[in-house]
Write a structure and sequence with these properties.
The protein is an alpha/beta fold. It contains 20 helices and 18 strands. It starts with 7 loop residues before the first strand and ends in a 30-residue tail after the last helix. 49% of the residues are buried.
């Protein structure tokens, strides 16, 4: 947000909030007080209720106090949960600062407070463990007023930091599935049936257990609803045949019951199951052929449910997927209703190149087609290597450009799926920060934001971490690698020369912070894990290359002590698993040091070396 300073007044020290303010408004006032006290230790900031009908020099927080002092109600009209108003010594409250969200908002007043802290006072909330305070107390506050709104109404990231560090994720304005009333609540999908792949769950309601096969009684009574059919279909995780009118009527009634039972829900997911078992019923195929896309019958059904329940639940949107075989938009003119969300998935994309790159031309076509049809499109995006969380995944340079691309195509919400079940990963703190910043404003200068983050988070090691980042991008470009969201440790861009260069960069990074605060060394050690992880699996290859190329060897002389070092940092970071399948450090040790039978496979469970087709939208956290 650009602040244009016309005049300046002294920073007020009284923070005003009404006695009946909500929990989130009280939290906002408390965060404002504590951070201002850090920024200006020579001043004393207090929090209290309004005194009289006219304000003095005060920071007025929330709609209650703002309206009490005479801010016109129309100023707050339409702000909702995501937008806020800032008035810095502006009429009619010319002696005060006003920080407020909309009337009845659960979180926008929090955003107003953090806007002041970042844009005016000078804080930067880089990560849950790194807040940069201003260099000095801001004594003169500029005069202006503005209403600010995010680029995306829904801003979700399920990596470990945003979902477990609520103070930080609130400060940077994530509003996804994990928060509480104090932190402003969140955009809530009805649960049950859950966040995604809800077909069977909707049918089974009120049973809230995850359904991986058709509900037996319904399968027996209505076999025509399901695919596949016959004896095997009863126990198969398949799909529904949405062209069936009686199925749509039943789903509509189930949806009504679900929404009556979950009054806080604002979205209900009516989405395909996570497999390729398309319904092959002739009636289904006829509808899809008519509509020009395999999503035809499903979208008609979701539209019908949305129409039937629109008046009863005007605050609810009905969400469905455009995913894998349903990704292409209809060509018949069929459009989602205004209260229907199309959640378009990027799973087949090349995540090492921006979505505007020629490698991603098929997605560009689908994005443009849905943009022409849908008034409310969300994105399901992928930001990690699900086969090897702790391996290089050089996508930091495309995160902001991709969000810019989504915004240019009218996207209203984005969900970023990453390392959701463990700490750790490749520069995850940087990625979480960039995503948060750009989900609010995709026009940020991502190079500048990256430089700031690296400098504060890694101190004098920043230049060496950047060397690693640049080397990885050069490796991608040099190999023309198409980087899916799942690949193994032998990916062509991970050449021995690149890995050794990167390992040396981290050795230099460690040396640069050896005499600094211990937190910087711990961060460098965590950042070095991805290269070390690959090196451990390709130890003999890298040793031979280093010897033949006469390169300095950056690790221990033998494999066992280097693995022990990896394990030490793994445990210090608190990493729980190495991949989405749940493999742990014990599995890694058994692969590297097999007791018999030769080297074990690097991939256990599902083989996801090329992509996660058929098992991708896997996150079902409630």
């Amino acid at each position: 947000m650009l602040v244009v300073m016309t005049r300046a007044d002294l920073l007020p020290t009284k923070i005003t909030i009404t006695d009946d303010a909500s929990a989130s408004e009280r939290y906002a006032a408390s965060m404002l007080q504590s951070h201002l006290q850090i920024a200006c230790p020579d001043l004393t900031f207090t929090v209290g209720p309004p005194k009289g009908s006219r304000p003095g020099s005060e920071i007025i927080v929330g709609p209650g106090a703002s309206l009490h002092y005479g801010l016109p109600a129309e100023t707050l009209t339409g702000l909702g949960n995501e937008s806020y108003y800032l008035g810095y010594f502006a009429p009619p409250l010319v002696g005060s600062v006003v920080l407020t969200g909309g009337i009845g908002s659960t979180r926008s007043t929090i955003y107003a407070v953090y806007s002041m802290l970042t844009d005016v006072i000078g804080f930067n909330f880089f990560a849950h463990d790194e807040t940069a305070p201003p260099m000095e107390c801001l004594s003169d506050v500029p005069h202006f007023d503005i209403t600010n709104s995010p680029a995306f109404e829904y801003r979700d990231n399920n990596q470990f930091q945003p979902t477990t560090q609520l103070d930080w994720s609130t400060a940077v304005a994530y509003n996804g599935r994990v928060t509480d009333a104090t932190h402003g609540n969140y955009v809530k999908y009805a649960d049950p049936p859950g966040f995604v792949h809800t077909s069977y769950n909707i049918l089974a309601f009120p049973d809230s257990t995850w359904q991986n096969h058709p509900p037996p009684a319904l399968y027996k009574a209505h076999p025509e609803w399901f695919w596949p059919r016959g004896a095997a279909g009863a126990s198969t995780y398949g799909q529904l045949c949405w062209s069936n009118a009686s199925l749509v009527a039943f789903v509509t009634e189930q949806a009504r019951k679900i929404l009556c039972a979950d009054a806080n829900a604002t979205i209900l997911s009516i989405s395909q199951n996570d497999n390729g078992e398309q319904c092959e019923d002739p009636a289904e195929k006829a509808v899809n052929d008519k509509e020009g896309s395999p999503i035809g019958a499903l979208l008609n059904a979701v539209n019908a449910v949305a129409d039937a329940l629109a008046d009863e639940f005007p605050h609810v949107a009905f969400d469905t997927l455009a995913y894998q075989w349903t990704r292409s938009a209809p060509t018949s003119g069929l459009k989602p209703r205004p209260n229907v969300i199309i959640r378009l998935c990027t799973i087949e994309c090349d995540f090492a190149h921006p979505l505007t790159h020629e490698n991603n031309a098929p997605f560009q076509k689908d994005m443009a087609a849905w943009a022409a049809l849908s008034k409310r499109t969300y994105i399901w995006d992928y930001v990690t290597n699900f086969q090897h969380y702790v391996a290089p995944f050089p996508n930091w340079h495309v995160l902001v450009p991709n969000l810019r691309f989504f915004h240019e195509h009218g996207v209203q919400g984005v969900f970023e799926e990453g390392t959701y079940n463990t700490p750790g990963g490749d520069l995850v703190q940087l990625k979480d920060y960039l995503l948060a910043k750009a989900l609010w404003n995709p026009n940020i200068d991502d190079d500048d934001a990256t430089t700031q983050f690296l400098g504060y988070y890694y101190d004098s090691a920043a230049v060496h971490v950047k060397t690693y980042m640049d080397a990885m991008v050069e490796g991608i470009d040099g190999s023309a690698y198409y980087m899916h969201e799942s690949f193994d440790v032998n990916a062509p861009f991970l050449t021995p020369a690149l890995l050794l260069r990167s390992a040396q960069a981290f050795a230099n990074a460690s040396a640069a912070v050896a005499s600094k605060d211990v937190r910087f060394m711990r961060r460098v050690e965590e950042a070095a894990l991805p290269v070390m992880y690959v090196a451990l699996f390709r130890w003999d290859e890298l040793r031979a290359y280093a010897s033949s190329a006469k390169l300095t060897w950056p690790y221990n002389e033998t494999l066992r002590p280097q693995f022990d070092e990896f394990k030490r940092v793994y445990q210090a970071v608190g990493i729980k698993v190495l991949d989405e399948a749940g493999h742990t450090i014990d599995w890694m040790e058994s692969v590297l040091f097999p007791t018999s039978g030769g080297l074990l496979s690097l991939v256990g469970g599902r083989d996801r070396s090329s992509s996660r087709r058929g098992s991708s939208l896997h996150w079902r956290a409630s």
